[in-house]
Every structure is written in C-alpha cells, then in structure tokens.
Amino acid sequence: MYIMYIKSVVLLRVTFLTVDRFLVFMIDQGLIANLKKIGFVENEAKAYAGLVMLQEASARELHELTSIPRAKIYEVLDHLVEKKYVDILQGTPVHYRPIEPDEMIRMIRDDFEKTTDSLLESFDQMELGEFQKDEDAISVWYLRSDWTVRNKIKELFEKTDKSAIIVCQTPKILFDIEDILKAAKEKISFLILVNDVKDYEKLSLVVNKVPSNIVSLYSDLMENTKTKDGCFIFSSNKQILFLQYKEDKLNGFYQENAIVSFIYKTLSYMLSNLDSVDIPENYHPVVSLLKNGPDK
After folding, report:
1. What is the mean pLDDT of residues 248-255?
2. Closest Cα partner for 73 from 85, 86, 60, 82?
3. pLDDT at residue 127 above 60?
4. How far apart are CA 34 and CA 96, in angstroms?
5. Contact criterion met (CB below 8 Å) for 163 and 284
6. Whole-angstrom Cα distance, residue 149 to residue 172?
7. Which of 109, 124, 142, 214 has the maximal Cβ count within 10 Å?
C-alpha cells in the first residue's frame, strides 16, 4: 500500500501558459501536497517537479520557472542534492539534474523500510527491567466505554478461581450485565447482595439483601467513591471492580492488589456467620466451612 501510494504522487501534471511572451509554470497542487507527505517541503517539491519537467536546469532557470525566491533557490537545491534526489552537473553556470522518479520512489521506500525495521528492533530490545513497576504501588484502571467495562468484567471472572461477592445498589447494572454473570456462574460461584430484593425480581440470578453487619463497611466504600449508586465486584483473586453510570454510560474502576484480598476475606468471614444469606454449596470452601461446619 505504501509503495503504491508513493508511485501515485510522482505523476507530474504541469501546464504551460504563454503570458506576454513569458512561460508560466503551473503544477497541480495535489502533486505538491503529496510530495510534502513523503518528506518534501513545498519549495523542494516545486523544484524537483520543475527539474523532472526540464530534465536539466540552472538555478536561475529553475527560479524563473517555479517562482521559488532567488534567495532560497540554492538552499533548496542543496537540500535536494543532500537527499540524493538531484545530481550536480559541473559547468558555468552549474546545472542540476533530477534522478528518475522511480529511483526516488525506491530510495524513499528503502529508507522507510529501514526506519521501521530499526524501530521494531529498538522496541524489541527495550530493557523493561529499568522501569519495573513498584509492587507496593496501587494502580487504578478507569474504564470509560461499555465495551471496555464488559470485557473487564469477563476478564475478572476468567481470572477468578473460586468465587466473587457482588454488592450492588443500582439494579440496572445487574440487568445490563446479567448475561455475563450467567456465563460466569458456570465456572465460579458468587453472592449477590442488594439493598432491596424486590428490585431484582426479574433477574434470573439469586440475590440476597445486604446484611446489617455489612452495611457500615459497604457505606464506607460508597462514601470513598463519592456516589450513592453503583456496584462492587470483589474477586477471591485480589480483584475489585466498581461500576457506575455516568451520563447514562457504564463506567468502571478496576484494581488488583492485596488490600482487595483483605476486604474480600473480611466480607466472606462476616457473611459466614449469618443465617440470612444463602451461600451456595460450592462457594469458597473456607466460608462454607465456617458457616456450615466440618460435617456438612
């Protein structure tokens, strides 16, 4: 694609008009624009196009043909010579001859390929060890699109090896991700805690009312997020995902660290001492043992 594009830009389109016995040189501005895209500045593009038309010219002739200022024409030609797009013919005066457009294309193509190969090699050789992330640092991922949020939820459940706790104050969130939760239920077990069970009667998943001993902890979490609505998903694998609607779009915050593991275990322990919460038989073995006893 790149090679074909370069070939298209060297289609020289020029027009000659006779005005008061002077030859006025006009180049299609599309040609100039395309030459600029592959590295030429405007005067270089005009000069190269003019030389391709004339095949050979002095600086003065090129100045008169292209209207490039006399004070700049030599500098422009020097740059083209330096780039090897133009050759110098010694004489009095000095004349300039362009290389063939096909050759110019080949040079640009080769330079482009060498540059991209060098870039790829440089990236491959980057020493990431010098920029190791501090394991004690806590990174927060902000998820700003429905697609990103849904994929992060799926990823969270895929990485979860045992169970998850979902604490939700916004019914719409659970209904919107119901398909993901149903699919995840085939792999792991989870508890869903809500404020009012009646709001979730049409949900095809079992929900439980948030126990009183969880309310204070949950309220603190909601206060820290500075919102009264939202949904927390805690994973047994140190992951937490907070979901909320912002301007009718589902957003999220994701973390993965040891603090989440502590919160998850705290919630699990508190839930294990309640008879009001229906804990699935295949839920986290530690919680099941605490709640049901070793013989059940």
Report:
1. 89
2. 60
3. no
4. 23
5. yes
6. 15
7. 214
DSSP structure class, residue 189: E
Cβ neighbors of 18 (< 8 A, separation 6 or more) are: 24
DSSP string, 18-58: EETTEEEEEE-HHHHHHHHHTT--HHHHHHHHHHHHHSSEE
Tell me which residue has tokens 């927060």.
Answer: 140
The enclosing domain of 172 has a CATH number of 3.30.870.10
With CA atoms as reference, report the closest residue to 259 among 276, 225, 234: 234
Nearest to 166 by CA among 185, 151, 147, 148: 185
Give the number of domains in the chain: 2
Q: What is the pTM of this model?
A: 0.48
Compute the C-alpha angle 81/84/86, nearest 5°: 55
DSSP labels, 263-293: HHHHHHHHHHT-SSS---TTS-HHHHHHHH-
Closest CA to 222 of 211, 214, 230: 230
Instruction: Evaluate whether residue 112 is within a structural domain.
Output: yes
> Is residue 80 located within the same domain as residue 145?
no
Last residue of a domain, one of 102, 117, 132: 117
What pLDDT, in 10s, does the model give residues 234-246? Answer: 988 888 999 998 8
Is the Cβ–Cβ distance between 229 and 167 less than 8 Å? no
How many whole angstroms separate alpha carbon 80 and alpha carbon 40? 9
